[in-house]
Amino acid sequence: MDQKDWAVLASCPLFFSCDREKAAELAENGASYTECFPPKSAIPFRSEKSGRIGVILEGEAEIYSAEGKALLNRISAGSVFGVSSLYSQQEAKTRIVAKSKARVLFFEEDRLDLLLEDKAVRRNLIAFLTGRIRFLNEKITSFSAGSAEKKLALFLMSKADGNGIVPSIPSYSKLAGSLGIGRASLYRVLEKMEREGIVEKEKKTLRILSRESLQFYLS
Fold first, then answer.
1. CA angle, corner 143, sides to 137 and 149, nearest 5?
2. How crowded is the C-beta side of 91, counted as CA atoms within 13 Å?
């Protein structure tokens, strides 16, 4: 791996608080191999023998529900995936598909102990798993929310920053899929909220204008 790869690893959630040299040393000890995936190809969670953790070094990938219909998340260089496949014989409940050409560094399960000997990496992995649990809880809440209005309101309230801005929405079609509603329904609800002065839409950014009014949809 070159210096660019080491810089990516230093920004990876597994190696937070590790400097570039420490990340490189740990990765050299625990990494198994890199693999490239063409656009639209599946990136498997498991090898033939066991689970494995993957770190994207280059490119982007999308995470879908097991049946491949609902987009759950989009990941890029530095992102980690595959933790749900570790130390278990069960198949993963999600699918990962390369959005562009992707190069992935894999840590096989039988070599992961070498990484986990480092205290910082252990803590980072626990923090990462906690974040995944929180993310999945948000998705469960969204899918079980009921109406399209309520699902969108939950999304906006959970993703907006202190200024009420939800930035960098990849596309409204993808957003509709992640919320489990039709694209037409999403546009209908957005237009309704705009007319009511609750939300302002500008390209790929949404701004909450009235949190009180948005809260009405959650009651």
1. 120
2. 8
Query: pTM of this prediction?
Result: 0.60
Report whether 166 contacts 160 (CB < 8 A). yes
Q: Report the distance separating Cα 180 and Cα 157, nearest Å.
A: 17
The CATH code for residues 146-216 is 1.10.10.10
How far apart CA 38 and CA 103 sit, in angstroms, is 9
Write out 121-168 in H/E/C secondary structure. HHHHHHHHHHHHHHHHHHHHHHHCCCCHHHHHHHHHHHHCCCCCEECC
- When mean pLDDT is compared across 73-87, 138-152, 156-170, the lowest value belongs to 138-152
The string of DSSP letters for 192-214 reads: HHHHTTSEEEETTEEEES-HHHH
Give the list of residues 6+ apart from residue 62 with CB closer than 8 angstroms, or none.
Answer: 71, 73, 74, 75, 96, 97, 99
Q: What is the pLDDT of residue 143?
A: 56
Name the β-bridge partners of 34: 105
CA proximity to 123, closest of 53, 18, 45, 5:
18
Q: How far apart are the C-alpha atoms of 70 and 64, rounded to whole Å?
A: 5
pLDDT in tens, 90-128: 666 788 999 999 999 988 887 777 778 888 888 888 888
For residue 108, the SS3 value is strand
For domain 3-142, give the fold.
Jelly Rolls (2.60.120)
| Domain ranges (residues) in the chain | 3-142, 146-216
